[in-house]
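Running this now, will post back.
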Amino acid sequence: MAEIAKRHRWAVELLAPRRGESVLEIGCGHGIATGLVLKAGADVVAVDRSGKMVAACIRRNEGLGRLTAFESDFEELDLGRFDAALAVNVDFVRHEDRGWARAFGKAVTAGGRIVLVLEAPTIRTADRFALNAAASLAGMGFEVDTQLGEGMVAVVGRRR
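Update: finished.
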């Protein structure tokens, strides 16, 4: 199995999933962060726009815990409520806003948390992502903090 990238480890560390929690992961890709969350004992609903990535996520994490994974645009879904949400290397603010912050606002329960981690090639990219994502989440009722890592930025929020 491939080495786990720092961005995935950091994102899951910041999220601090707990046994029995329900966690929503957007942009699950190959399922690397998904596996770390499952190993912590949380249940995961993983979504990706690519069916190929969803299949890879399912294969990688078979037997690790309760995983539901499917192909879809996150902003169009109503998946219910989650204790926490996570996205790694999904640059929501780079593209036209399709309602991602509003979707997280609906999906994360009061007192729940969200972690968005982006591996940023430049400080300008990190700054743009952090400022815009933090403002969008704050507008949806999250208390937000930003953190810098080695070539990465995280936006961490807790739902009021």
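Residues 10 and 117 are 8 Å apart (CA to CA). More later if anyone needs it.
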